[in-house]
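Friendly challenge for the regulars: who can give me the structure tokens for this chain first? No prize, just bragging rights.
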Amino acid sequence: MIRFLEKVKNLSPLIFLILIIVFPWFLKRGYLFFVDMSWGPHITIPEWTSNWFYFWVIIKILNFLIPADFLEKIFIVIVFGVVLFGGYKLGQSLTKIKTISFLSSAFALFNPFVYDRVMYGQFGVVLGYGFFLVFFAYLIKYYFDLNEKLIFFAGLFAGFSILFSLHFIFFILLVYLVLGTLIVINNLNLRGKLFNFIKYSFLFFFIIIVINFNWLYGLFSREGNLKEFIEQEITEKDFLIFKTRGSNSFEIVKNVFLMSGFWGAEQFRYIPLKEIKPIWSFGFYLILIIIIWGLFSNFKDKEKRKLIFSLIFIFFISFVLAIGVALPIFAEITFFLSNYLPFYKGLRESQKWVAVIVTIYNIFFVYGLIELFKKEFINRNENLRIFLLVFLTWLIIFQAPLLINGAIEQIKPTNYPSDWIQINELIVEDSNCQKKILFLPWHLYMYFKWIGNIVVNPAPRFFTCPVIYGENMEFGDIYTQSLKPEQKKVENWLISFGDTDLLSRNDLNIGYIILAKEADWQKYLWVEKIINLKILKETENLKVYKVEELN
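First reply, four minutes later:
Bragging rights claimed.
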């Protein structure tokens, strides 16, 4: 019991960092709706070749005991916890001072990269980033200790990083290639250590393959469509649409330097940090002094100089690739990689490379803090140490101050409307889910007045019966990138105002059409003129039609 209380005491600063974000979300029942993430009471398991297959199997099992809305909040807490753990391990790989490891954790969580991805609901990216931090920490630790078991743990967390965000495979390959080369160079005269590193490198990649076997199998077989999607649907147009943002060349470079530039920040779906400029950048510029101090102080150390050079090299490569096609001078590099590096064009959002930049910043930040806490006048004065801890924590939080208090109440727990529940029960009772639901309006992202924001369509996560819904992104020049044949059939039916055999032949087994009174729903009222459709029920938010068989 005493040991448990001691662990809780040690974790309390990290718990505090999570609570100042999520606490308001636990005061009320309801789901949290983000642009790219909508949960509901109906948990569906994707195909086993999906990288999210294992996750949703676990959630499905837990849902028998725990309500889905509470599971969603627990999931977000775990995501933040993994990021904090990654930051802590990164600090721990360089110093034994717990205060510095705590500040490293705070830096890992409170930064523009994490804020933007959280507010857009891209928790897979944030989770991948958190595991990436742990992978980096173990690899750095191995560089100093040459303990082969650290390679095993590096592979384990690299595998999880890729599992939750496939793009991290490129970040991990870059880091492992650069640091691995450095390790080989340093140990050319130690054949035993060199042989062990090469041997454990095979183990490293084997672990990654085992963890990611299901989607890798789908990638290279006919059972998955990931390879087809990357090769056929993603083009240079995608890189231009999702390019790193900035009003001019200087602004683009500055945004990447400030760990920002995410394209989604310009969609007016959450408050971007630039709205409180220069407050949010003020904290980073002060922290930058410590980062630069950490860089140059360790550059003087001959034992660490090669490592510092390697980290700067990784930073430079990541910086260039993060800018991507946003600047003509770097665009050709990105297009070259997309054409010749297998599957690189799947990384159409170059700004995700900022995850590596944040990590390098964090390492130099830790080095700077080590130098700071070495000062004798700080070591002798406990009050000064406490003041520095509070002040630096405050500065770090100021990098992404809009994250606290439930993202300053931009995201609030919301229950599904009562008429959605009523309609779901009606359809289940009427059909026992032998028929599918066609959900309109036909948009992947849509404004729902009961949510108060544009979010990914929540219908498939809510209704018990299978739902066919629009997977059309409708962003820039991209209308849709769905490979499902059913999507094209419904789109042709909509374009022709019902003048196809979609409902008469009914190959898709559609039994009901739900028209939500959201967005441009009135443009779909022509469905009422279709002969074999009858209105089953109309509520405040929904109109429900039943598809009848033609004689």
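The chain has a mean pLDDT of 93. The two ends are 73 Å apart (CA to CA). Your move, everyone else.
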